[in-house]
Amino acid sequence: MKDLAALHKEEYGAAPQLIAVAPGVAHILGEHTELTGGYVMPFALNRSVGFAVSQRKDNSLRFFAADYNERKRTSIANIKYRREDRWANYLKGVISGFLGAGCVIKGLDITLSGDVPPGIGLGSSAALTAAAAFGIKNLLGLSFSDRQLIDFAWKAETGFMGIQTGMIESFASFLCRKKQALFLDTHYLEYRYVPLTIKGAKFLITDSQVPRMGGAEDLSLQKEDYQKSLELLGKRRRGASLKDYSPKDIRESIGILPENLRRRCLHVVEENARVKEAEEILRSHGSPDTLGKILTRSHESLRDLLEVSCPEFDWLVKRSAETEGVYGSRLTGAGYGRCTITLIKEDCIPEYGKRLEEYERIFGFKASVFVCEPSEGVKLL
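The structure assignment produced for this chain is given below.
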C-alpha cells in the first residue's frame, strides 16, 4: 500500500486526521453456502484497503483514488448513485448510511489506496466499505457497534448500489483476528474463532486471470432454486435451511427433487459438513494432509455438482495435486471468483510457481500467486 498520509497531504494540503485499514478476505471452505444460510470459514488476508480522511469546513465531498490517480466529487446534499463514479459510489453509500441513521456529517476529504486485487472474489469492495465505515465512525466519535458498521458497509453495496452480495466478506473484514479464521453461521450470523496456525504450511492464492463466469443474476437464480428445494423437501420433513438436512437426506430425495436441484443441494449440505470437519481438524492441530483432502473434495463438488468450475481451474487444482508439498487446492472467491486457494508446505512454494509457466503456455493466461498470512480485521493506523 502507498504512503496514504503523504498522498493525502499532497492532494489536499493537510495531513489526514486518521487512517483506517481493512483487509481483503479469502474463503478456506463454505463456497456457495451463504444463499442457504449455511456455514462458511473465511479469514482476513494480509492485503488491505486504506482510507485516509479529514474534515472540511464546507459540505463538499472529495474522493481521491491514488492507485488509479482518479478524483471524484459531490456534496452531502447531493449524494446519489452515479454509474460514472464507479469506486466512489461505495464511499457515497457508506456516508449515506450514516446520514440515514441521523448522523450529522459535513464535508470530507478522502484518499484511498490498497493492494487487494479487485474483481476476483477476495472482498476488495468489502474492505473498502469496512475501512470507510470504521474510519468515519472514529473520525466523528460515533458510538456505533461493529455489527451496525457491518450493516452500513454491506448496505452500501446492496442498498445504495443495488449489488447482490452476501455479508461474509463484511463480517470477516471487520471481525477477523490474526492467525485465526471465522466459523460463521450465515443463517443466524453467529460466529466463533478457529486457530489457523499450520506448522510449516501456508495458504496460497492463485489468480487464474480467467474472466469471472457468473454474476448477480446467476446468484439470484440459485437462491430461487434453493428456496424451491426447501419447499419440496419440506413435504417430507421440515427444515429452516439446508443445513438441517444431511447428505443422506439429499441422496434419498430422488423423485422429490429434480436432479439439477438435488445435485446443487448435495453440494451445499456436504460443504457444510466439510466446514465443520475442517474446524475440528484445526482445533485439534490435526494433519494438514487431512485438511488438504477436504479442500480438494470441495473443489470436486464445485466442479461436478454445482458445475461452477472450468478447465483452467481444474488444471490448476490437478497440477497442484501433482506438485510436491501440496496438501490440497480448490476454486475460491466470493460469488464467482477466479482464484484457487492452495495449502502447501512453505519450502515447496517456489516449485509451485514454476508449474504456472506451463499454465500460461496452455491457456494463455499469466497467473499470479501470493502467500496468505491470516490477519486482523479493520483497524486504525
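Interim note for the steering committee: The chain has eleven helices and twelve strands. The chain has two domains: 4-196, 201-372.
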